[in-house]
Amino acid sequence: SELLARSFFACGISTVLQTTLGSRLPLVQIPSFEYLVPAMVLSSHLSLVSTCIVSLKNSIPGTAVASACPAPHCTMAGSWAASLREVSGAVLVSGLVQLVLGVSGVCGWAAQCCGPMVLAPSLSIIGLSAYKEAAFFCSTNWGVALLFMLLAVTFSQHLGSCRLPFCAWFQARGGAMETSVPTLRMFSVLLPLIAVCIICVVLCHLHVSWESLDLTTAQLSWANSTFHAPWLRIPYAGKWGWPLLTTRALAVGVAMAIGCSMNSVSCYVLCGRLLRAPQLPPHACNRGLCTEGLGSLLAGLLGTPGGTAASIANTCATGLTQAGSRFPVQVSALVCVVLGMSPRLAGLLTCIPLVVHGGVLCVTYAVAVGTGISYFQYADIDSGRNIFIVGFTMFMALLVPRWLSMVPAHLATGSWVTLDLLFLSLLMMPVFLTGFLSFFLENTVSG
């Protein structure tokens, strides 16, 4: 819960910076999937190296040394702390790289050069890349997940134009009071979430076995880590040691920065598209990436395993609710800062059932897929060239990470492990593959 609290604190600060000094879009900052994949690649490599070293030492006669702490958890805790420090170092590097990309103007230039043949497959694959996680979360109880989706679709689509007269809304620009607002649409994600959580609590109170968890998930001791966490603890840098900067952390950090920068640029475009706003100017994209870099620097110094990036789920939820104000986002940022200073309160959020997360992913990421498809109207989709570019980039973006996840050892240059980690981290991210291939083919294939 302390790691979660520190992550909340960094995300809250980054969200405040993003909405006031950055792109000024209503975007919540979170540790995105583009941080998780390289972090898992680095952690897997570190655990493999640690296992090989221990096995080698024990295999040499006379080198086996008794541990000062014979309990198995001592070795695991030390290995976990070392891995966390190196992953935090990678996050720190990613923040520096993002800051350089924003200050140099590369982000704004790239956003201007991306046409519909780049945006369409990129946004679509961002939505499709979360289908495994959504299916895993929903599999705990498909009935509850379908109930959440039914309520969200009903409130946002079928009853989206339903205006409740007893809900007034003050318009800041005109200074007038709007007598009725589409309340159900504005709360089309929050109301189903609350309703489903209440149903889950009632089922648990009645001792109804409604959640089917596998052995690994069931063994997660969320309750123990929450109940033993302090109510108040101000996060500060260096509590678990300073971030460890190695060549491996440098390679993984560069991969994190590239993937998260591409994700953030797509998120800026997606937010403007859903809110029917004008295209974001290049300097706003650069400022947004700079603020995300500062947030990642803070997250790395605090020792969290993930930086800060624009949330695709939050952006898609904004499209469903059509609530484009920055004020609710800034309020949520302050709430995140408060949660970051209270590990006990932050740990309580882990009590939210996985099926709720799955329902949210299904509803929100579907909007990203649909928005990407809508960009095809600006291109000649009947062209054989465009058909090939879209099909090839999306197919390879799903194929390559799938293959590498099954046989990661096949990617080896044979000379430098750092280069292997860089390539493996990049090729495991669908957003990088789609963006790179579509941008390359769009600008090199004539037609």
From TrEMBL:
<dbReference type="GO" id="GO:0016020">
    <property type="term" value="C:membrane"/>
</dbReference>
<feature type="transmembrane region" description="Helical">
    <location>
        <begin position="90"/>
        <end position="111"/>
    </location>
</feature>
<feature type="transmembrane region" description="Helical">
    <location>
        <begin position="387"/>
        <end position="404"/>
    </location>
</feature>
<dbReference type="InterPro" id="IPR006043">
    <property type="entry name" value="NCS2"/>
</dbReference>
<keyword id="KW-0472">Membrane</keyword>
<protein>
    <submittedName>
        <fullName>S23A3 protein</fullName>
    </submittedName>
</protein>
<keyword id="KW-1133">Transmembrane helix</keyword>
<dbReference type="GO" id="GO:0022857">
    <property type="term" value="F:transmembrane transporter activity"/>
</dbReference>
<feature type="transmembrane region" description="Helical">
    <location>
        <begin position="416"/>
        <end position="441"/>
    </location>
</feature>
<comment type="similarity">
    <text>Belongs to the nucleobase:cation symporter-2 (NCS2) (TC 2.A.40) family.</text>
</comment>
<feature type="transmembrane region" description="Helical">
    <location>
        <begin position="187"/>
        <end position="208"/>
    </location>
</feature>
<feature type="transmembrane region" description="Helical">
    <location>
        <begin position="249"/>
        <end position="271"/>
    </location>
</feature>
<dbReference type="Pfam" id="PF00860">
    <property type="entry name" value="Xan_ur_permease"/>
</dbReference>
<keyword id="KW-0812">Transmembrane</keyword>
<feature type="transmembrane region" description="Helical">
    <location>
        <begin position="345"/>
        <end position="367"/>
    </location>
</feature>
<feature type="transmembrane region" description="Helical">
    <location>
        <begin position="134"/>
        <end position="155"/>
    </location>
</feature>
